Amino acid sequence: TEGGSRIDVAADLTIEGMDPGAIVPPGLLEPQIRIAARGSVTPSGRFVAESLTVDAPAVRLTGEGAGKGWGVDSATFVGALRVADLARFDSLVNQTLAGATNLEVSADWDGTRAAITASAEVQRLSTGVVGLDALLGAAPEIALDASFGADGAVGIERLELSGTGLLLWVSGEIGADALGIEWRLSLADLGAVAPVLGGSVAAVGRLTGMPDDPAATARLTLNDALLAGYPVSEARLDADFSGLLTRPAGNVALEGKV
Questions:
Q1: Cβ-based neighbour number of residue 192 at 10 Å
Q2: Of 65, 101, 127, 243, which cross-links 247 as Cys (Cβ 3.0–4.6 Å)?
């Protein structure tokens, strides 16, 4: 303590024989979890987490943070999550996974809005799905810059997934009475998805309207495509739909050169 104005806290906890139930994949948290933390608190509600470590058989979480008003007024957190063996998650996705991943995240809360930045790198990835593995490759990356308001509003500055043959980018806002999402997708080679296909794909689109009744527009362009053995130098598909969750209606137009 410092004149009785601060309480230093240190904890080291080991949990053995934990039964996480059916939600958590077997072997992820058992047979032992160790939690270690060090920090301080004040009577006024200020706290500092100098270090936090959670060690389990397949995952390791480390982080640090601070806040005041017990986190209601403001709070910050910086952390990292290491998953050593993605095969532990096979039962969740019903696929044979392999690889490891590192996730880094930082978060700031100002009392009304949380800003989150996160990035993940995967090593030696294998999903067991030939087409998906070809698009993602062995080392895909994910990046996110987003905000979450106390009123439920979500802002996505950037959500990006990049792999060997795929790039997906999303941005926009989701509110209680408005929706505005833009996305872009590019595939380097359709042949990676199916042998009877070929060429590259570029697609862009938007989601607008009300969150409970959105409308969508999209444009998909194929270049130097091969469709069931027939060469197509260029093809374009335009689509727009309304009432996606109520009474879907829309138009689709297709044009191309062979």
A1: 21
A2: 243
Provide the token pair at 101: 């991943």
Mind listing the pLDDT tens digit for each residue in 13-64?
Answer: 988 876 666 556 666 666 778 999 999 998 888 889 999 999 887 889 999 9
SS3 130: helix
Give the mean model confidence (pLDDT) for residues 117-136.
92
Q: Rg (Cα) of the chain, in Å, rounded? A: 24
Rounded to whole angstroms, the Cα distance separating 99 from 132 reads 15
Is the pLDDT reported for residue 158 higher than 90?
A: yes
| Contacts of residue 108, Cβ cutoff 8 Å, sequence gap at least 6 | 74, 75, 76, 114, 115
CA-CA distance, 110 to 14, in Å (whole number)? 33
**Beta strand spans in 112-196 (E):** 113-126, 141-149, 154-162, 166-174, 179-187
